[in-house]
Design brief:
two-stranded antiparallel ribbon, 459 residues, Iron-containing redox enzyme family protein, 2 strands, Haem_Oase-like_multi-hlx, mainly alpha, disordered N terminus, 22 helices, globular
Length: 459
């Protein structure tokens, strides 16, 4: 008889994220709760105050932006070529030590990725002004032009779902800062236009970490399509990076307010430096610490659910789980007893057999991500003889095809509400459905497609 019994009825993931001020603001802005507009303005002002004295690398005059973008892109391309050469010479992955490391990072940047493009939402009312075309094209492309297969949020959610890694458990409050900032900017389009343009300029530049992430995710069996998609659309020739620079030029005042406008653009650009960036998240991973933290989060749900047949170092499993801070010692006790065999095939460990495989007593207790953390910790420097085939972008389970025949209640209600409206009235009525919260829903996807049709007709 095993010493563990299945935690039947318990969810595979426990949502113990850090409920700090950034997380609370993120939820308020995302849910479009009462007072969101005022909270957004206050937050943007506070963040701008933090970056005003930070150094920046924008050219001194906006006319040099296009050349600046091209130079940055060339430098990234050269650095990536050097990375590929190093890998071909046998150097190990630069970012991800194992699959658990990759999934850890995908989880922690998820609050930002799941509001992708939100900073531009407030500019939609300028659909009739050709000076905003580059910015609105960028936003609508983030929304996949209303098609689920290209909608960035839909793609990212599918990526997390494919690996059962959608839980917010373990996220720090700082992981919500950039997402909250993007949502806030999107609600303040009229108050912070130069800052939004500057933020967009910074965010849409092609970073080296995006290219390396795509390459290494593929090696680990994780579909990199979300990231390769950004590699292509953020190009400096005709993509979002180019459009971002041109938008600064197009919207600069022609009169005496020009210098002040560009100063504010530069401040918005520096907002990208706030919070933990991608490379900081990558460097924050420690496999043992993440395993202990994960088991600690689950400890309270399992501390009274085990039998007392087995003892480790004189304690039952329930006793090991009764108090916080004992997980590390418990793992060592399991290893000393031979239940965990480090640096070997995890299938050889009795503890792993309780979690994975036919008849596993703890089947369903751990999410896919949590099992990956445990698997990679046990495996250590053991290398499977089975080579993980590289994943080609977009070759996972297909996204559901968009249907142009409304089937869900929200879409049906939206279509009916538009029936007796003029084209101009329809376009205005559609705007709320293109928000961060709604655009990835069936009704939001329909609204995006309809918005694009009406915009083309009315221009």
């Amino acid at each position: 008889m095993t010493f563990l019994t299945a935690l039947s009825g318990q969810p595979a993931s426990m949502h113990h994220s850090a409920h700090g001020r950034y997380h609370a603001l993120y939820q308020q802005l995302y849910s479009e709760a009462e007072g969101a507009g005022e909270a957004a303005r206050d937050f943007v002002q506070a963040q701008l105050a933090q970056v005003r004295k930070l150094p920046g690398d924008l050219p001194e005059v906006p006319e040099h932006l296009t050349a600046w973008v091209e130079q940055r892109c060339a430098e990234v391309a050269q650095a990536y070529a050097e990375y590929l050469e190093q890998r071909q010479q046998g150097r190990p992955r630069r970012f991800f030590h194992n699959k658990a490391h990759a999934l850890y990072c995908l989880q922690r940047v998820a609050p930002t990725k799941q509001v992708d493009g939100a900073w531009l939402y407030g500019l939609l009312p300028h659909w009739h002004d050709p000076r905003f075309d580059g910015l609105l094209t960028t936003y609508l492309e983030e929304l996949g032009d209303g098609h689920a297969a290209q909608n960035h949020v839909v793609i990212y959610r599918k990526l997390l779902s494919d690996h059962d890694a959608a839980s917010e458990a373990g996220l720090d409050d700082d992981h919500y800062l950039q997402g909250a900032l993007q949502l806030a900017l999107g609600l303040c389009g009229e108050d912070f236009l130069p800052e939004i343009i500057g933020y967009n300029l910074g965010y849409e530049q092609l970073p080296l970490h995006l290219l390396i992430t795509s390459y290494e995710l593929s090696e680990l069996g994780v579909d990199p399509y979300y990231f390769t998609l950004h590699v292509t659309i953020d190009n400096a020739s005709t993509g979002h990076a180019c459009k971002a620079a041109q938008s600064v030029i197009d919207l600069l005042p022609l009169g005496e307010g020009r210098a002040d406008f560009y100063r504010r653009v530069a401040e918005g650009y520096r907002l990208n430096d706030l919070g933990p960036g991608t490379t900081a998240v990558i460097n924050s991973f420690n496999l043992h610490d993440e395993l202990v933290a994960m088991l600690e989060r689950k400890r309270t749900f399992g501390q009274h659910m085990h039998s007392d047949y087995c003892r480790f170092e004189g304690k039952t499993v329930n006793q090991w789980l009764a108090k916080p801070g004992q997980i590390g010692a418990f793992l060592q006790a399991l290893e000393d007893k031979g239940w965990i065999k480090r640096n070997q095939d995890p299938a050889e460990s009795r503890f792993w057999q309780l979690i994975e495989g036919a008849g596993a007593a703890m089947f369903g207790v751990f999410s896919g991500y949590e099992k990956q953390v445990l698997h990679d910790w046990i495996a250590g420097d053991w290398i499977s003889a089975e080579r993980v085939p590289a994943v080609r972008p977009g070759r996972g389970k297909p996204l559901p095809r968009d249907t142009h025949r409304p089937t869900d209640p929200d879409t049906q209600a939206l279509v009916e509400s538009l029936c007796n409206l003029t084209d101009q009235q329809q376009l205005t009525a559609l705007l709320p459905w293109l928000s961060a919260r709604r655009h990835c829903t069936p009704a939001g996807l329909y609204a995006t497609r309809r918005f694009i049709q009406l915009r083309a007709r009315l221009r």
